[in-house]
Amino acid sequence: MSSHKRKTMYLDRLKEVQDLVAYSPILLRIREVANNPKASAADLANVILHDHALSTRVLKLANSTYYYHYHKKISTLTHAVVVLGFNTIKNLALSVSFYEYFRQKGAGARIDMNMFWVHSITTAMCAHILAGKTGYRSREEAFVAGFLHDLGKLIIATFTPDDWDAIETKISQGYNPLQAEFYRIGTYHTVVGEFVARQWHFPDVLLNSMLNHHRLGFQDNTRSKEPMVDIVFLANVIANQLFPVLGARRLNMRILRKQTSQLFDIKSDELDSLIQEVHKAVEETAEDLAVPMVHPKLLDSSGKRAEEYIVEVEEEPVVSTVHDPIRETYVRKAQELSFSQEFIQSVVLAETEDDILTMLTEGLVRWQLFDRVFVFRVNRRKKVLDGKMAYGVDSQDWLKELSIKLIPGEGLFADALLNNRPVLVADVKHYPDKDALDTRFIQFSDTRSFACVPLQLWGTPEALVVFDNARSDAVLTDDQLNSVKMYALQAAMAMERLQRR
Asked: For position 16, what pLDDT does the model report?
């Protein structure tokens, strides 16, 4: 069978895979919100919060040594967006969401996902640094291009595992990885990645770098028309020098120096410095993220292969999802304890009252204690409660347009705040005093059971925190209400400390 026919048959097989085109709706929403000039930091944080694993990894990466240039710990996704910027968070989420997507699809059964992560993050960081040194228009774009360059390998391993196994067998027999791919499927992982990414409507610059990151058919000293292709090519070569994957080709350092000079006018000492910078950044970032990795020593000037050794890093414990009432109770208590510890540590570093409210409300959702949390702030001039922020929602536009009268006897929210009294509504349909419920909030939130906890500073009403478990339709308990009451008290005390400064 000709290689062209094998390639056609393989790509036709991919077209039949239903899950392939329907890639993560969260990613699509992230791109949509990040590109909306009217979107707020909380809007982007809300999208990321819909995926717990994604939000955890993005926040960890934002606090990693590589990205962590801020003088204080970044405690919330909203804060991360403010400090690092929309584009950075969008690109971190884009990169991490791919890793999580394929990990959940079972790619780890055939690919060492830790090693794949290390190679991807190394290439991404190197591309990011190279973009800065060569004056490329967007270092963040280079980071994403570097991280996603080997998408085709994940596609092959996940959706056509029989082909992946055959390719791995050929590599173990001494075949070059690209030769092994061509022998089995008539094409390369570069083509496979570009083929699928085009269906996902990736921009041309990412498609080109994905397709040509091995520069097949290019002359060694000829620069590509798209600079990103050469950036990702060199970043990938350096990544293989530092943390080689199975069958990867490691260039002699003399050849690497010559090619780097021809493509980017980078001198030998600058290349050495760049490699050391990337090596240090990847090691520190992997440690920050608790990713086990292989640490070979840097190559010497002769290009001799260094001995590799494994550094084990303890993984985060995975919380069981078994629906056992007793187990669920213990899991929830563990989540509450973890959130409480994080919250107490974070509010000490807060600089504004809104920071504290964000740490409280976003944290309650991120630690999966509640599905949604809403915050209303007192508007003394108008004598109303104004919708301020919401987490766990698809859109908080309606909340920002919602005002509730702050007059005694005019509603449940007003009475709860003015009397400093937490309130739990187990079922809005059977609440004895329906006139006290704000119908606009009930209508827009579509909630069945909710609770509200007031925040008073120096005895003066300042804010109201409302929370529910709308997605699970679970009825809230007095125990949950008391927990939030304690968190709200801690928030109020932290806000009072700010006012003393």
From this structure: 78
